[in-house]
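ok so I'm stuck.
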Amino acid sequence: MDMPGVTTYQPLAKLPLSYQVIPGNLDIILRCRKGDRQGLKRINTCHRSYDPLHYILMFLTGCDGWHLGLNRTDNKKLTAADFYKSRRQIRHEDFNIVFKGKKLSQQYAVDQRVKVEAERLDWVMIFMRLS
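replied:
not stuck anymore, here's the structure
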């Protein structure tokens, strides 16, 4: 792929061999370079910045994604399934980037479904340990 004005390619991320990568894990690994937070930082799927970091082209403003601290109006926990159902609603008065991304939107939908199923499986595992 030729890009005008680009003569060399730089890696987007580097992972040291000693850093553990779990197969099937969807976490994002960031390399922090400024301030006192230098080094690697793991952003898991329950972090509020996971969606804007993973789908930079869809969430240019960096709006928060689903995270464990979200509550509904009745102060009950907002599940990932409910959050992403709301994101996928068609609202004629608002522009929704989720429907305009073509293949990126398809990947987003699949990843969010995986996140919802992982949350449900985690709940089952916790429930089984308690009983």
